[in-house]
Write a structure and sequence with these properties.
The protein is α/β, with parallel strands linked by helices. It is 30% helix and 26% strand. The protein has 2 domains: 2-125 and 301-331, Quinone Oxidoreductase, Chain A, domain 1, CATH 3.90.180.10; 128-277, NAD(P)-binding Rossmann-like Domain (Rossmann fold), CATH 3.40.50.720. The protein is globular, with a radius of gyration of 19 Å.
Length: 333
């Protein structure tokens, strides 16, 4: 099968398109023929070696973290799926590899594709949808009437998080550029801060939750907008000791991550709020709940561009410009 391979971290040559053996099917796996794969900033960060500490992959590696396709075979223990089922998933972090013609995924991480989405639309959902769900529903426990700030509202996570927050009944603020104001308002944003004109930390106050996907400067400024007891959740770091423990990291790595997050954690305590790092996990069960919201028309994916599979490196380069609105996808079928 064809696949895009990462041979070494930080390579200026990008990913290599190669012929590789089809994946081995484990007893609890479904083998999926990939029709479309989402492209994420996470893919670029893995390629560049930024996640070597948290995700110690053995190279060469097939990259890719989002998939939509058709089941072509199932392991002997699989009961929920059969060949011919249209599915989508974010594979477990230890078994990524959606930039390929086939991928084997544990059935616990897979769910049926929303009936009202194309394969390309479906492939754009899993990673960002699960990130938004785990940040807002699971960790922040957002409730009706609360105030939530979502940074980078026009990005992949942002477009999904705005819609989910509105569904939960909270008031939504977001940061974006002037060119994307109409987009985030259509998605449901109540307050929009043009980061090129205004400083969000001067405009927004009394928020219950902040979801950060930007750098450390934005992270620290976000503390100022939170009300006492508020929650600052970041998907861009720094990782904390709690994440390291849940990730099964060594005691040394847990110590390192505690050190890396010490500054923001101290500042959060001074403000009377909490800081936590979120690295989303695969979950077919949670994805099925997102499917129900999509089929009900409550949330919908936002796609900027669809690239042909052969142009996967170009798709990665495009998301690195930071100009994409919503998600970028590569199409195989």
């Amino acid at each position: 099968m064809k696949a895009f391979i990462l041979d070494r971290y930080g390579s200026n040559d990008g990913l290599r398109l190669a012929e590789v053996p089809a994946p081995e099917l484990r007893p609890n796996d479904v083998l999926v023929e990939v029709h479309a794969a989402g492209v994420n900033p996470l893919d670029s960060k893995i390629r560049d070696g930024e996640f070597k500490l948290i995700l110690p992959y053995r190279l060469p590696l097939i990259l890719g973290n989002d998939v939509a396709g058709v089941v072509v075979a199932v392991g002997p223990n699989v009961r929920a799926f059969k060949p011919g089922d249209e599915v989508y998933a974010r594979p477990d972090k230890d078994r990524i590899g959606t930039f390929a013609e086939l991928i084997a995924i544990d059935e616990a991480d897979v769910t049926l594709k929303p009936k009202n989405l194309t394969m390309e639309e479906a492939a754009s959902v899993p990673l960002v949808g699960l990130t938004a769900w785990q940040a807002l529903v699971e960790r922040a426990e957002v409730k009706k009437g609360q105030k939530v700030l979502i940074h980078a509202g026009s990005g992949g996570v942002g477009t999904m998080a705005i819609q989910l927050t509105k569904h939960l009944g909270a008031e939504v603020a977001t940061t974006t550029s002037s060119t994307n104001i109409d987009l985030v308002k259509r998605l449901g944003a109540d307050t929009v801060v043009d980061y090129k004109k205004d400083r969000f930390e001067d405009v927004l106050h009394g928020y219950d939750v902040v979801l950060n996907s930007l750098g450390n400067d934005t992270l620290e400024k976000s503390l100022r907008v939170l009300a006492p007891g508020g929650k600052l959740i970041s998907i861009s770091g720094p990782p904390d000791a709690e994440f390291a423990k849940a990730n099964g990291s060594s005691w040394l790595l847990q110590l390192i991550m505690r050190f890396l997050s010490a500054r923001i954690s101290r500042k959060a305590r001074r403000h009377g709020v909490t800081y936590s790092f979120l690295f989303m996990r695969a979950s077919g069960e949670q994805l099925s709940k997102i499917t129900a919201l999509i089929e009900a028309g409550t949330i919908h994916p936002v796609i900027d561009r669809v690239f042909p599979f052969d142009a996967t490196n170009e798709a990665l380069a495009y998301i690195e410009t930071g100009r994409s609105k919503g998600k970028v996808v590569v199409k195989l079928k």
